[in-house]
Design brief:
114 residues, mainly beta, 11 strands, 4-stranded antiparallel β-sheet
């Protein structure tokens, strides 16, 4: 059974930081590119970041470049998203996604507010 379980979300003040984790099981994690995708209140899905299976390549949407860092530990079947200098516009549910085949986690809420 495939599972992607996100954790690490919460309420943080602007300028603060969070580290999201996504623990994967039930598929060949080390062979899969992984992404983080978010959905802000009342808006559609927005791709945030991706990492290749071997961690050689990483990609970010412009609004998070320089603030967010994606990484993975294939020995632990886990992908991370370090989020620094958080802004209110980063408020969203953050989903972990595996590629080909596509699998989604249940999401973790991130709220940036003073």
């Amino acid at each position: 059974q495939v599972q992607l379980v996100e954790s690490g979300g919460g309420l943080v003040q602007p300028g603060g930081f969070l580290r999201l984790s996504c623990a994967a099981s039930g598929f060949a994690f080390s062979l899969s590119a992984m992404s983080w995708v978010r959905q802000a209140p009342g808006k559609g899905l927005e791709w945030v970041s991706s990492i290749s299976a071997s961690s050689v390549s990483t990609y970010y949407t412009d609004s998070v470049k320089g603030r967010f860092t994606i990484s993975r530990d294939n020995a632990k079947n886990t992908v991370y998203l370090q989020m620094n200098n958080l802004k209110p516009e980063d408020t969203a549910v953050y989903y972990c996604k595996a590629w080909a085949p596509d699998y989604w986690g249940q999401g973790t809420q991130v709220t940036v507010s003073s």
